[in-house]
Amino acid sequence: MTEPDHRVLTYARTLTPPPGWKVEVSGGMIVITASPSVAHAHTLWLVRRQLDAHRPSDVMPSENTDLVSPAIGMLRNPDLTYVPLSVLDSGGNEVPAEQAAIAVEIVSPSNPENDLVGKVRDYPLMDIPLYLVIDPRNGDITLYAEPSPTGYHRQWNGKFGDRVPIPAPFDFELATDTLLRYPA
Fold this sequence. Notes:
The chain is α+β, with helices and mostly antiparallel strands and 184 residues long. It has one domain (37-175): tt1808, chain A, CATH 3.90.1570. The chain contains 3 helices and 13 strands; from the N terminus they run H-E-E-H-E-E-E-E-E-E-H-E-E-E-E-E. The mean pLDDT is 90.
């Protein structure tokens, strides 16, 4: 792996996107994405309610939190993550990515490659232990686990209606029968 160029990460941290937009850094590039739709928010709400019910007492949910890995020059902003309560002590806007218990993404119809390719590549490099991808375009669900520098070593694939086996620290089966697909 080549040495990351920290200038991009440093510059991205100075940007103030307009309301409804978020900034990420991946592959040495700044990625700016728009806010999600109501259908996206509904799916996230349904998933979050279940994760909240099974979260360990020492972690909290956080939506659109900047997860940063300065050593590899990456900053990503998942739709939902769970981070230790101890991050409150730092008082900043960024959380070290390796402290996240899970990253959850609801695939955007306007930029699916960001969630399905870019983040599948970046999250294991950032040492995020679980990555749950929900794709309302076609009703697919993928859970990635066991990150390494070469990618995730485990992958579970299913469809809306299946029960997703979410491992520790949550340790439950996520019900997906009420998830809705995006309108055609």
